[in-house]
Here is the input.
Amino acid sequence: MKGTFPIEQFSALRTPFYYYDTTLLRDTLDTINREAGRYPNFCVHYAVKANANPKVLRIIKESGLGADCVSGGEVRAALKAGFPAHKVVYAGVGKSDWEIELGLDNDIFCFNVESVPELEVINQLAAARGKVAHVAFRINPNVGAHTHANITTGLAENKFGIAMEDMDRVIDMAHTLPHVKFVGLHFHIGSQILDMSDFVALCNRVNQLQEQLVQRHIIVEHINVGGGLGIDYQHPNRQPIPDFAEYFATYHKHLKLYPGQTLHFELGRAVVGQCGTLVTRVLYVKQGSHKQFAIVDAGMTDLIRPALYQAYHKIENITSEAPAEAYDVVGPICESSDVFGKAIDLNRCQRGDLLALRSAGAYGEIMASGYNCRELPIGYLSEELK
Ligand code: LLP
Here is the structure.
């Protein structure tokens, strides 16, 4: 089954562009609020890195979610969209001084700190402002996730976080620094995770670490388990809203919280992935010796996921009902990896047809680049095109 799109309105727009179905986005946000709301101590932040289109951010902010940022630019984008600073968490292995200062000046909820030198700099910069920064330590839990190697983050070999064996030392150090307050532990094992047992493994690890801390009479205010819940790229229409009930129930069941603790989540892909589509026009149909190519006007500059992670995005010809034929769908960029899919069955294509690359709401528009001096794609909301 194809997705349904306002083809007439599309015809008037310059391609390629991103299209966001805001009914689906709002339904997804309602589901998150309903399912997380069953557990009064759960707080959900939206991982801005997945999509920072200001119109999308504003809708997410209206739902009441907090924001998870990984750069000063993201902190600015979140604040500009109206996310309250006290719901902003800020992670990242390499925070520049101005980025830390931005967080301090706005009194954000928490810095997720990834190294000792960073902790020292935060302490210094907070001292200069007469403030006390709230910090959580991002602990690398050495838990693998069944996902693509480029998007797994919780293994000892990855650059992220503080090694588990260093946790005690870093906490001791924080206690000696007057301008930081150690308030939480942060984790994130990877992205596009569909196997709940990966999250169970994380819960077990968090429980172990908390037991160690309790022995030292330390109970942190909050635990942040990051994001990572995946979406169904193969069948975008089958269950467009991920199973948040199962996701939150998994944490409720397996993660042991101590009295007064809150549990924070940083979900990106699961929030915005399915509501976004990259719409592109067929420029040429080229017959090769063994196959045919549909050459489209979108390229890896507009959606880099297939080239970077060999990611699958379902492709549909939304303007043709002609019998299907197989095509390699390729972009115009001067790189052999500028391929969206090989031997893809599409309703017979001709010049001018519109193709939809589905499930592109997360890590699509935001990862676009100007390589080959191309213009960045524009993002439209469904409610703007009515
Ligand atoms: N929290 C932290 C600390 C993260 O590093 C990430 C994603 C998230 C939360 C949100 O993860 P999500 O819920 O979206 O899985 N560009 C890649 C994905 C990179 C993910 C980076 N970190 C892709 O297109 O698949």
Summary: Residues 67 and 78 are 7 Å apart (CA to CA). Residues 47, 49-50, 68, 91, 151, 153, 188, 191-192, 226-229, 266-270, 305, 309, 362-363 surround LLP (CB under 6 Å).
